């Protein structure tokens, strides 16, 4: 009897998989609020892109006795933020959304601000503030997803771990100023 039940479940699963093929990875058993999650992911994308731009500016504008090492850290962080943006954009598409790269929308959607910083210490401080904002935002999104979308949650947890490393790096730089 349980073998027949298993066969029925497999047949049902196969039948369901053939429905709504245009939805790609989003299957009938997807439990997260997809539209809300897409909104949150686009906000995270905007945050990452603003951080890329700020870190890049700081890389080129860093001046002072410690500037070379700090500038190198800014460039490394910028590249990692860009990789985060790429991951977020790819996941948005997988979920049937469209990543928003429109420059005019970035500032309004980003959780972090684009602050140029007056000097090297100020640049480090502004980047640390932005990292702390990103950490808070990612934790909130991960919590709101719960176990409804493990793929997105796992991706965000990987990004969060890097953001925490960035914050630790920047706090160390700031304490050495």
Automatic annotation (TrEMBL):
Classification via Gene3D superfamilies: 1.20.1260.10
Instruction: Please give the Pfam families that the UniProt record associates with this protein.
Output: Ferritin (PF00210)
Q: Which GO terms describe its biological process?
A: intracellular iron ion homeostasis; iron ion transport
Please state every residue range assigned to the domain named Ferritin-like diiron.
Answer: 31-177
Q: Which GO terms describe its cellular component?
A: cytosol
What are this entry's molecular-function GO terms?
Answer: ferric iron binding; ferroxidase activity; heme binding
- InterPro entries in the record, alphabetically? Bacterioferritin, Dps-like, Ferritin-like, Ferritin-like_diiron, Ferritin-like_SF, Ferritin_DPS_dom
Keywords assigned by UniProt?
Iron, Iron storage, Metal-binding
The residues that the entry says bind Fe cation are 48, 84, 131, 163, 166
Q: Which family is this sequence assigned to?
A: Belongs to the bacterioferritin family.
Q: State the name under which the record lists this protein.
A: Bacterioferritin
Q: Which organism is it from?
A: Limnohabitans planktonicus II-D5
Task: Write the lineage as a comma-separated list.
Answer: Bacteria, Pseudomonadati, Pseudomonadota, Betaproteobacteria, Burkholderiales
């Amino acid at each position: 009897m349980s073998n027949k039940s298993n066969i029925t479940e497999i047949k049902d699963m196969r039948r369901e998989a053939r429905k709504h093929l245009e939805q790609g990875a989003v299957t009938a058993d997807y439990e997260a609020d997809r539209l809300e999650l897409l909104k949150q992911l686009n906000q995270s994308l905007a945050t990452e892109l603003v951080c890329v731009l700020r870190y890049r500016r700081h890389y080129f504008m860093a001046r002072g006795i410690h500037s070379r090492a700090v500038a190198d850290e800014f460039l490394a962080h910028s590249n990692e933020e860009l990789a985060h943006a790429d991951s977020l954009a790819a996941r948005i598409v997988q979920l049937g959304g469209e990543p928003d790269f429109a420059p005019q929308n970035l500032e309004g959607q980003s959780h972090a601000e684009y602050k140029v910083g007056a000097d090297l210490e100020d640049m480090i401080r502004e980047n640390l503030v932005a990292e702390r904002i990103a950490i808070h935002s990612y934790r909130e999104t991960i919590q709101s997803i719960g176990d409804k979308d493990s793929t997105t949650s796992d991706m965000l947890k990987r990004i969060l771990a890097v953001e925490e490393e960035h914050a630790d790096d920047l706090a160390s730089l700031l304490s050495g100023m």
